[in-house]
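Hi P.,

Sorry for the delay on this. The queue was packed all week, but I finally got your sequence through. Input first:
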Amino acid sequence: MLGPFGVTESEEQLYRVLLTLAEPSLAELAAATGCGASGVTRRLRALEEKGLVTRTPARPVRYRPTAPDLAFEILALDRHKEIDRARLAAGELTVLWEAAARARAVPLQVVVGQDSNTQRYLQTQLAATREVLTLDRPPYLEEGVEPQYRVQLDLMARGVHYRTVYDRLSLEEPGQYERLRVLAEHGERARVVDGVPLKMLITDRSSGLVPFVLAGQRQSVVLDRSPLLDGLVALFEALWERGTPLWSTRKAGGLDASDEQMLGFAAAGYTDESIARRTGLSKRTVERRMRHLMDVLGARTRFQAGIQAGRRGFLE
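Then the structure:
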């Protein structure tokens, strides 16, 4: 019963005997417990140190047990003092641990496995409070598209800003155009580059994740604050500057929404046929409207028309 208070089983047995006797002597306790005098003496000394036994001033010395309610209170107070001392010691150990952790810190780790990577990709975004920067390119895992889409919409609704650079091939994916349009309507700023070198996710410029496939196994490099992470942020910003805005964020005189879409696709290098498939317009209509836009912008090619539109602020 008294084990949690630091009292051994043999000490508790002796204390129980003391409670049944009227101030016994050492000899009487030895006889009652069947133990030698030296063994009883050791237990009595331990019980005295714990405040469970006191000696009488008479000779021969007799022993008087402390009342159980008072004894338990004393033991509890002593244990609380030990806990407080342990907490102080733990605080000192924590300081040592944190200092050692900083000294041995490795700014990256590798996550292996499809499920683990999908979960980590979503968790990294959910930790964002201000900004998410992403580089996006195929291939995509079917089971990861919809969860990512929902998480991004939810975070943007909370005020997290998303900037994404898409590889031109990303827009070839089934259903991608519709998803990107919805994301744009909810606040994502998107640009397109021909040849995004890797997939990447950076949150609040303090943590990052680079997914890849090695030997047929999905893996990710997870990064904390480090020069390597700073380098990836610089890579994102360079691609962002080079990228062509996919959507317009403001109305330009003489351009409607479909014109802006066509110019965005044209700047990303899409053919009239590809633009027609993505906008739902006929190829002939796209050709006719692109010729008009080229005339308005003073461009000789569709690609030049898209670039001129970006420079003039028609696409941002």
